[in-house]
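Milestone M4 deliverable, item 7.
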Amino acid sequence: MIQNHILQLLCLIAMEPPVSFIADEIRNKKVDVLKALRKFLDDEVHHNAVRGQYGPGWIEGKKVIGYRQEPDVNKESVKETFAAVKFLIDNWRWQGVPFYVRTGKRMNETMSVITIQFRPVPHQSFPPEAAGNWQPNRLVINIQPTMGIRLRFQAKRPGLKMLLQPVDMLFNYADSYTSGTPEAYETLLLDIMEGDSTLFMRADQVEAAWEILMPIINKWDTNPSVNFPNYAAGMQGPEDSEALIAKDGNNWTIIPPISNG
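Output delivered:
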């Protein structure tokens, strides 16, 4: 998931604006991002990547088995079912900005979301008591199961006092468009028939993505985990994934999903 899907989403967010919508122009910009991603040294992997494997738990009120109890799975398997990684991009635009990604199986819900948290302003002109519930401004892009965009910003509460609180502006595709949305593979099959390679990975993209991830994979292969399973099915992953982002003063953003209807 990280190599072939999540890194592509990361590239779409981080790439420089293309000069045209020609396939190779888009893919060139994506490759630039992959080449700028900082490669992990062997002793840096455990500081920037977390792995997990789910055990028995509860999903939607039903008890479910752990990975090692699944059919045809080794009862002592050390195969990962969860990964969280902190990436850094060494270029002028993104220097020092962390990109956190995570993906896993048997988590509390199935969804794909991109959250962009804006930098804090250098100075807040509002008095401290006005911004008591201040939260970072965020742009949240929901990809699945519902498509939409949520912009979170600060607004003044009604009344005579200057009190700010975070509010959301929502855009939901299902509310704005009545026509059905093509399935992902329908779009890709049409692109194949029309010869449009924009959404497809080029060979150098594939190689660059694997080059980024191989230090993590090699480290994990040579040092199998001794604490699997380390998260219960129906949870949001292992506690170490929370520590991965918390040590930088951040947290995984939990925002209610955009619902259809």
